């Protein structure tokens, strides 16, 4: 059994989970006619919300110092128990779900502690927050989504004194000045403050709840734009000895080895294609002024952990001539 767990823990856990759910579905069908329906319902919840998460911990987390990663599994198991139990016998789940609150608080605290420790080591804050989230959460997609939201709020609210991090030996090229993106964000923030107040007052005449929902969405939009602007300002594109690191804030991020690059050249008079297969416009706003052609498709990371294969990138840099000169020297070297 130990050898099987080491080779492929997913298969034995999946078989165990399927067997447990099959047994609990059969048991749930007899709850109504049971002399002690409450006891039988509690047993179903215990098996699904305690035994299965414990098995998950044993197969995947044991000895890794990541016990709090089992919290999402417990939450999903409670949802599974709610689906298995017949209506009228789900009251125990309403009580059991409150046990998740301290665990969820502890999990959030673990993520934040990891982020603080990561940021104290210096380096790129976006990468550090992503590392901390992936270390604290079990699933890559969930970790990337949490990291994106935390990074967005951190950048929008707490990073205004920060300076761009440029690794030793790298040449950094900003991407936001030529496009006027900062001015656009400032104008949108001012308009959102005025329009959001007006919309809130009008909507409150019909529904106070709807008014606050609209206001919350407006505030989130402002936070997103400020965070996006800060990410673009603090994460310039880098020309390094071994690679060209193209970054557009939190939108797109790809590290291209020089051997992967076919050509780096100014964009011609024709607009860069928006939806052509394999093309990506990696600019804060407007047309790119440099086109990077790759020898083969490379996956570019986007927000919330999404990615897409790309063969040509349209890049916007504020100092085009200097950028092309640095690139040429590194490619020749």
Describe this structure in words.
- This protein has 333 residues and is of the alpha+beta class.
- Among the domains are: 2-104, no CATH class; 243-332, no CATH class.
- The chain has helices at 2-7, 10-28, 37-61, 71-84, 91-96, 100-120, 125-136, 140-158, 181-203, 208-234, 320-332; strands at residues 171-173, 237-239, 243-248, 252-257, 261-266, 279-282, 290-301, 307-315.
- The strands form 2 sheets. Strands 1-2-3-4 form a 4-stranded antiparallel β-sheet, with helices on one face. A 4-stranded mixed β-sheet has the order 5-7-8-6, with helices on one face.
- Strand 2 (237-239) and strand 3 (243-248) form a beta hairpin.
- The radius of gyration is 26 Å and the shape is globular.
- Mean pLDDT is 81; it is low at 1-6.
Brief descriptors of the model:
333 residues; alpha+beta; four-stranded antiparallel sheet; four-stranded mixed sheet; 11 helices; globular; disordered N terminus
Order of helices and strands: HHHHHHHHEHHEEEEEEEH
Mean pLDDT: 81
Instruction: Work out the helix count.
Output: 11
- Spans of at least 5 consecutive residues whose pLDDT stays below 50 are 1-6
Number of strands: 8
Strand content bin: 5-15%
Main sheet: strand order: 1-2-3-4
Overall geometric form: globular
N-to-C CA distance: 54 Å
Residues in helices, as a percent range? 55-70%
Please state the structural category: alpha+beta
Largest beta-sheet details: 4 strands, antiparallel
Whole-angstrom Rg: 26 Å
């Amino acid at each position: 059994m130990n050898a099987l767990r080491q080779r492929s823990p997913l298969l034995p856990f999946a078989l165990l989970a399927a067997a447990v759910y099959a047994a609990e579905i059969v048991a749930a069908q007899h709850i109504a006619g049971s002399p002690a329906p409450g006891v039988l319902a509690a047993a179903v919840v215990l098996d699904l919300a305690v035994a299965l998460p414990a098995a998950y911990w044993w197969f995947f987390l044991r000895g890794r110092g990541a016990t709090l990663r089992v919290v999402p599994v417990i939450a999903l198991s409670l949802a599974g128990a709610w689906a298995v139990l017949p209506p009228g016998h789900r009251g125990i789940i309403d009580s059991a779900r409150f046990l998740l609150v301290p665990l969820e608080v502890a999990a959030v605290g673990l993520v934040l502690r990891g982020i603080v420790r990561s940021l104290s080591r210096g380096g790129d804050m976006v990468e550090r927050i992503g590392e901390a989230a992936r270390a604290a959460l079990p699933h890559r997609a969930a970790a990337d989504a949490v990291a994106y939201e935390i990074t967005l709020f951190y950048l929008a609210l707490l990073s205004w004194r920060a300076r761009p991090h440029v690794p030793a030996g790298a040449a950094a090229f900003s991407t936001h000045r030529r496009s006027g993106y900062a001015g656009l964000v400032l104008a949108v923030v001012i308009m959102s403050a005025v329009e959001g107040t007006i919309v809130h007052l009008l909507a409150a005449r019909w529904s106070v709840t709807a008014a606050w929902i609209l206001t919350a969405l407006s505030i989130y939009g402002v936070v997103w734009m400020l965070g996006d602007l800060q990410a673009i300002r603090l994460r310039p594109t880098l020309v390094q000895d071994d690679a060209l690191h193209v970054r557009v804030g939190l939108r797109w991020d790809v590290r291209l080895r020089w051997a992967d690059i076919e050509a780096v050249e100014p964009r011609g008079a024709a607009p860069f294609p928006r939806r052509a297969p394999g093309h990506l416009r990696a600019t804060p706003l407007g047309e790119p002024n440099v086109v990077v052609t790759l020898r083969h498709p490379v996956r570019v990371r986007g927000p919330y952990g999404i990615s897409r294969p790309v063969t040509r990138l349209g890049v916007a840099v504020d100092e085009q001539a200097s950028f092309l000169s640095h690139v040429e020297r590194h490619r020749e070297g």
